[in-house]
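Holo prediction — pyridoxal-5'-phosphate.
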Amino acid sequence: MINVTKPFLPPMEEYQAYLKQIWERNWLTNNGPLVNELELRLKELLQVNHLLYLNNGTIALQIAIKALKLKGEIITTPFSYVATTSSIIWEGCTPVFVDIDADSLNIDATKIEAAITADTTAIIATHTYGNPCDIDAIQAIADKYQLKVIYDAAHCFGTKYKGKSVYVYGDISTASFHATKLFHTIEGGAVFTKDPELLKKMAHMRNFGHNGPEDFAEVGINGKNSEVHAAMGLVNLKYVEANAQSRQRQFEKYNEWMKYLKLKTIKLTPDSQSNFSYYPVIFESGKAIAKAIEMLNGHWVYPRRYFYPTLNNLNYVAKCATPVCDMISPKVLCLPMYHTLSMEEIDFICRLLLRAQNN
Ligand SMILES: Cc1ncc(COP(=O)(O)O)c(C=O)c1O
């Protein structure tokens, strides 16, 4: 069976060496030494000013919205994982969906201004599939209308824009280190900001608002992550570069097949460096994607329709007109991609796609 992805597991002995330390210290959670070490190592690797390691990427979004005190309407993308929208609603704000760009599948920055009202306080955009949004255009709009910007960078470990980690852009960027991501800590996430005050506020927020044992600075939540999760991250850091390189080879192998297949691939953002986390393809029609899925599933290959249905169709949001997203989303399929996927398996998948196309 070939699934769309497979979590990376490092050699068990390396993880066990960290577990031994945890047992010896008897310190399991609450800002432990491994959490601190992971934060420092990530800061250095990614060359970012600050970050806070959290228990997942959804809490990261919720803390970001709360820390920026967002109210009213938040402009966002309909083409992302449900957490991007549900976090907005969870924090008592209203998502306003702006259509996506047909080539990158990121929010179409040229359509944002038309959606701004007196109630708009922020833009939450996803760097979909780890491919950066039109960051400069979004920042220019945010500056003009005094809006905050949060980037849902859940897919972006290792992605760069203009030579810097994509996490440095926006008021806050959020990451997911979920098991299926290129870098993972089983469950995990992070917030990134350049603003030390905002960082301090979010540090309180992730720990119930505590500012010392008997003082509470803010309303908080339990956003902490544990030593056993941080340990997985510390081991995985050793392998992340090799895993990224194997995904790049897979990406290039899929690219070679594209000349035989009637599929469109997404346009990578200029001046950016992808992390090759996903291989999304766009079919010509709903019929073509259905035939391909049937053919692949019939041979135990399970790609995923990220992101379908779109967030605009959730039963708890008000619908906005997003014709490009509505047209493209039913035709997008993410092909399998993970560290051990072999070139032969990619040939197998692409031959099945070709067979479905020719049948
Ligand atoms: C775009 C996006 N945002 C947010 C999340 C939520 O992250 P987590 O699963 O770590 O809560 C995901 C999860 O895959 C995601 O794909």
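READOUT: The radius of gyration is 21 Å.
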